[in-house]
Specification:
Shape: elongated
Distance between the termini: 36 Å
Helix content: 25-40%
Mean pLDDT: 95
Strand content: 15-25%
Largest sheet: 8 strands, mixed
Number of strands: 20
Low-confidence stretches: 144-161
Length: about 525
């Protein structure tokens, strides 16, 4: 992972491959942001003019490179757009700093060291820049056919010259001896390492990551970070009556798993349960997805990846809260042994479910994991899943939906996501949609009304949550996997959506902010 250091050095004197400065959109053209004073001085106070001549406007994410002026140790100046200049006396928003730092880090791929002279007024600003730069510096290490990772780009690859992400981020204006700045840097390093863990898992081809190998990765991480892990294989799942997970996974040669991974703190007063959908490949099963809708379905385990990463991050940060992660892992494939539309499954909770569509499988594995998680009486449960295309239609590709059985908890989750810098939106659970999942042959069906499908999925999951336990559902189908080009600190492919929100939720719980 990219190294992060704090420095009080001047942007003019620090040796680096490039010095990064911020530029904002002013009323009369681009404006050089605070932090770049030494660089601006080297340009005779004309840096904004030079940038405008080169076409820079200060728009968010805009990157302009230019040769450094004499007097600067770095040979290149990289100006990155921060968006609209704030009102006088106001600072830049944390998310604006994250996105700018991420765009700059991406632009410096292949470089050894970048000096970031972006606006840093306090430790919170330093945290935002550090997070953005580390997120933006991510690159998935490509795999070969044997599953071995290669550190070199393939011959002819247009990115071959980059040879990897930016190696080191030096945060100027960061005070290495100040406790708040040091804590911000340490938190950013731990947090983003786990976001990148989730990204790596999501980007791994399905033939290299099945339920068993995903479970093995969790066990390995558990040993490294002092976490307690338990893995239920197909025999244990059958013995335990996990009909939802088994029903989804029975069509595949790669059998399902349920992983429990737990972090405990000796002084914790609250316990969170996190449940992640982990469909390592989703063909749709017998209700087969058409061409054009199945090529990226290795990402259907993004919820489990987020939960796994969040538990490890909590351990690294030593948060004063107990967190138990449940990874519901299966591969949804068509075969002679696959669950058929119309079959009835007996779930772990004791309820029965008529499977009307085998491509609505995520809610089936989550239902079993939610029911099992409730048995441990946590103070709150949050599930995370790439659950419905309907949520993408409602909120787009960059915003996840939040549903809950408790309005105050839904509001807290929304606020938490906002604090973490992840776009989300609270969604309702209209009571009239419940009737649509009634079944003549089972307690309920896994499909209901087509309109409002994302809401129906949440209503289905609620049926498996014990009364009295606050529960939240994050449908990350939109932002979990970026099929377009990279932007800000977001790469193409797996994004690690929800990891930062879950970790921030754990922090707030540890601090007693959630009651």
């Amino acid at each position: 992972m990219t190294a992060l250091t704090l420095s009080t050095s001047s942007a003019a004197t620090l040796r680096a491959d490039a010095v990064v400065v911020g530029v904002a959109k002013g009323t009369k053209g681009p404006v050089v942001a605070p932090g770049a004073e030494a660089v601006d001085k080297a340009f005779g106070g004309k840096l904004a003019t030079v940038l405008e001549t080169l076409g820079a406007t200060g728009a968010e994410g805009e990157v302009t490179k230019l040769p450094a002026a004499s007097g600067l140790k770095a040979p290149v100046v990289l100006a990155v757009g921060l968006g609209e200049a704030p009102a006088k006396g106001d600072g830049f928003a944390a998310e604006a700093l994250r996105r700018a730092a991420g765009a700059a880090a991406r632009a410096l791929a292949g470089s050894k060291k970048g000096a970031f002279a972006l606006p840093v007024e306090d430790a919170a600003d330093a945290a935002a820049v550090a997070e953005g730069a580390l997120l933006g510096a991510y690159a998935y290490d490509k795999t070969n056919g044997n599953g071995a990772k290669s550190g070199k780009a393939a011959k002819g690859d247009k990115d071959a010259k980059n040879n990897g992400p930016l190696a080191e981020v030096t945060l100027l204006g960061g005070k290495p001896r100040d406790k708040a700045y040091k804590a911000a840097a340490e938190r950013a390093t731990a947090l983003i390492a786990e976001v990148n863990r989730a990204r790596d898992l999501i980007n791994t081809p399905s033939n290299l990551l099945d339920p068993a190998s995903f479970a093995a990765a969790a066990v390995t991480a558990g040993k490294e970070h002092g976490l307690k892990t338990e893995v239920l294989d197909e025999k244990a799942l059958a013995k335990g009556g996990y009909g939802g997970i088994l029903g989804v996974g029975q069509g595949s040669d790669a059998p399902p798993r349920l992983v429990r991974i737990a972090y405990t703190h000796p002084k914790a007063e609250k316990t969170l349960a996190l449940v992640g959908k982990g469909i390592t490949y989703d063909s749709g099963g017998i209700s087969l997805k058409p061409a054009g809708h199945n090529e990226t379905m290795k990402c259907d385990m993004s919820g489990a990846a987020a939960v796994f990463a969040a538990v490890v991050a909590a351990a690294k940060l030593g948060l004063r809260v107990n967190i138990t992660g449940w990874l519901a892992l299966a591969e949804n494939m068509p075969s002679g042994s696959a669950t058929r539309p119309g079959d009835v499954l007996s779930m772990y909770s004791g309820k029965t479910v008529e499977v009307l569509n085998t491509d609505a499988e995520g809610r089936l594995v989550l239902a079993d994991a939610l029911a099992r998680a409730c048995e441990e009486k946590p103070d709150a449960i949050v599930d995370v899943a790439t659950l419905t295309g309907a949520m993408m239609l409602a909120l787009g590709n960059r915003t996840f939906g939040i549903m809950s059985n408790d309005e105050a908890f839904r509001t807290a989750l929304h606020e938490t996501a906002d604090e973490a810098g992840e776009a989300s939106w609270p969604m309702p659970m209209p009571a009239h949609l419940r009737k649509g999942i009634d079944s003549p042959v089972a307690d309920l069906a896994n499909m209901g009304e087509r309109m409002g499908g994302g809401l129906v999925a949440g209503i289905f999951l609620k049926e498996f949550v014990e009364d009295g336990i606050a529960w939240g559902h994050l449908d990350i189908a939109g932002p979990a996997f970026n099929e377009s080009g990279p932007f800000g600190y977001t790469p193409k492919g797996g994004t690690g959506s929800a990891v930062r929100t879950l970790v921030r939720l754990a922090e707030r719980t540890a601090d007693g902010d959630l009651g």
